[in-house]
Task: structure prediction
Amino acid sequence: MGYSEKILDYYNNPRNAGSLDKTNANTGMGLVHVPEYIEVIRLQIQVNPATSVITDAKFKTFGSGAAIAVSSLATEWLKWKTLDEAAQIDDMYLVEELDLPPAKIHCAALVEEAIKAAINDYRAKNGLEELKFEEIETGFEA
Amino acid sequence: MLKLPVYLDNNATTPCDPRVVETMLPYFTEIFGNASSRNHSYGWAAEAAIDLAREQVAALIGADPKEIIFTSGATEGDNLALKGVFEMYADKGNHIITTEIEHKAILDTCKHLEKLGASVTYLKVNSEGLPDLKELEAAITPKTILVAIMYANNEIGVINPIREISALAKKNGVLMMSDITQAAGKVPVDVNRDGIDLATFSAHKIYGPKGVGALYVRRKSPRVKVIAQMDGGGHERGMRSGTLNVTGIVGFGKACEISLREMEAEGKRLSILRNKLEAALLQLEESYVNGSTASRLPHVSNISFKYVEGDALMMGFNKSIALSSGSACTSASPEPSYVLKGLGLGDDLAHSSLRFGLGRFTTEEEIDYTIQTVTDTVNKLREISPLWEMFKEGADMTEYY
Result:
């Protein structure tokens, strides 16, 4: 299957699998499923409203071992980051960390989408406007 | 002692039976002659070995030895049968009838023939995996030259009503071809009783060597001919040129002989093990057998475990159980098994499927181990599946299934 040892490790010993209380105003949930792909990825964050720091993160994922691994990795990265920092987690970092095979790179993009959806879900619950996440224009041309 | 990984992919290929290997060995070094060499004893010995193997292969399917053409395997046989009939019977017509869930060796060959002017009807199958015989009969036209329907499906093990299908073909003066690769040696196949005019199969599915197979071509009522697809020395009565793979063919013959002799007892043994495995895995909630269970090979079970993904399932025991899933995750947008989709399964259910293919060397201990391992893996993945949680909470799952 050509998966890296790291992917196998996350698959065999998933970190932060589980659920947070959806009804708690301090949690936010991102549930991502797009028709082209089979994966269904759910990330949840628990936020300290005073500091905007993510104090807990959980995932549940339907998909390949790679999808499970990248979701689990993301929850580790989310913990103890501020919401602003969390919003900057780029899918390419996830791809590189796990050495995702080309056929699974989309899993990281779905996880990035789930992170942003979770942040916005938390903001919406707390009366804050939705953030628009757009790719940053740098003017850089390859 | 349990040897891991447990091998449950016997529909893909089987190990050579040691009795087969033993029979083959002298033909590598001592009896190495070319069966076409007519002038010396090396050639005669090889020819005698081929003659015996041809009898053994023919006996497995109730054919006459003269009706057996040795090939490199079922894929070559499928190609030779379809292309050879298409060319041979061009004056009569250009229409072929098959089903959507045939092996790729049939489907891709049909696609190729379509480019050469063939018209092909791909019959749909129902949720059991069976074609509608009324649709089949309605599809027959005066231009129809061949009905090509497999004896038993490689992914779900479902056995087609071949006798009824061939009767419809015969009634309309159409040839009946069947890929019997999965059925031969596993369940009784008899080309006369079953009304088959052309049949293909291979040695490596019945504990023989890889790279050898046979095409059966009926010689009497009707006398069937195919145009050779490989030109050369005119071997195999001109239908398949190329020096005969004597060693492989000897092994194929032995494999057929053993399978014929042991089929009944082995079929019973395997169906007991298969049923034990299936009953235990169906204890898991939301698990379903794919395809008909009424008419099925004794050693096959294809089960979908809803709310877990096949690739992840496979990863859970890729060191402990060797089998196939309906999920072919080699590309970013994996296409799940076209066979399961043909049965009407949604993508997600097709992805969540496992094919268990038991074989001659499968033990009860291995089945017990498999039950435990698969059950644990499904449970573990459901623990972390958002779909399972939603299902358990009674959510509307229509977006996903």
User: Anything to note?
Assistant: The CA atoms of residues 60 and 260 of chain B lie 6 Å apart. The domain at 18-258 of chain B is CATH 3.40.640.10 (Aspartate Aminotransferase; domain 2). Chain B touches chain A at residues 307-309, 311-312, 314-316, 318, 329-334, 347-348, 351, 383-389, 399-400 (CB under 8 Å). The first strand of chain B starts at residue 6 and ends at 7.
